[in-house]
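Example 9 (inverse folding). The structure is encoded as follows.
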């Protein structure tokens, strides 16, 4: 199988991971932080475009030992907030949650901070990496079932996403692992159910057969 064939399979999963929500104004922009500062840049653009008056950055010192490690010694949320401030966002428009190590904790720990601040937001624009849109939506809706959630990501094409921090193979491995989680996490209570089309699951199975297994859960 050629690299072009592999990329065609990966594109099916990449496209599935996008939920294609239409952007609307919300109470807050909720940024799930990671190694990718392009997400911070995009969230900042949404803020300046007037989609929400507050940006929440959530993420601790996470992803240590992961396939793609966070390259900093400080919490991801603090790095993202620094980028937003550099781009002109006022500090009083930013809320930082700097302990979360996974998507569920992003929501739970952020919710705790909002309650402490007596902030009751009913709608969020969740900003994530492109290949994690669907998993993010499915997780957030477990914890905030009655809140309006719009998920979006930087508008980067699959072929343009890899850079010095994440290779094409890394992206495919992560997407395959996330699709596995979308399938099995609902029965564990970690995510809401999301239907997976047959052609997407067949692409997953073929990529697993080809060895894209680095991000798979070892036991399910």
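The amino acid assigned to each position is listed next.
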């Amino acid at each position: 199988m050629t690299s072009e064939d592999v990329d065609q399979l990966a594109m099916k999963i990449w496209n599935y991971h996008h939920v294609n929500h239409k952007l609307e104004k919300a109470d807050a922009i909720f940024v799930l932080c990671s190694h990718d500062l392009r997400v911070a840049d995009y969230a900042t653009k949404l803020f300046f475009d007037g989609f929400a008056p507050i940006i929440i950055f959530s993420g601790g010192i996470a992803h240590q030992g992961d396939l793609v490690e966070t390259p900093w010694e400080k919490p991801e949320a603090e790095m993202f907030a620094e980028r937003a401030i550099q781009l002109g966002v006022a500090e009083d428009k930013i809320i930082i949650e700097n302990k979360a190590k996974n998507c569920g904790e992003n929501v739970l720990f952020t919710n705790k901070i909002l309650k402490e601040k007596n902030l009751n937001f009913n709608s969020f624009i969740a900003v994530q990496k492109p290949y994690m849109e669907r998993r993010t939506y499915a997780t957030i809706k477990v914890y905030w079932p009655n809140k309006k959630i719009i998920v979006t990501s930087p508008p980067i094409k699959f072929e343009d996403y890899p850079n010095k921090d994440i290779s094409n193979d890394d992206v495919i491995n992560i997407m395959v692992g996330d699709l596995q989680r979308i399938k099995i996490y609902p029965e564990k209570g970690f995510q809401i159910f999301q239907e997976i089309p047959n052609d997407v699951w067949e692409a997953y199975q073929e990529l697993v057969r080809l060895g894209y297994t680095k991000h798979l859960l070892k036991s399910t």
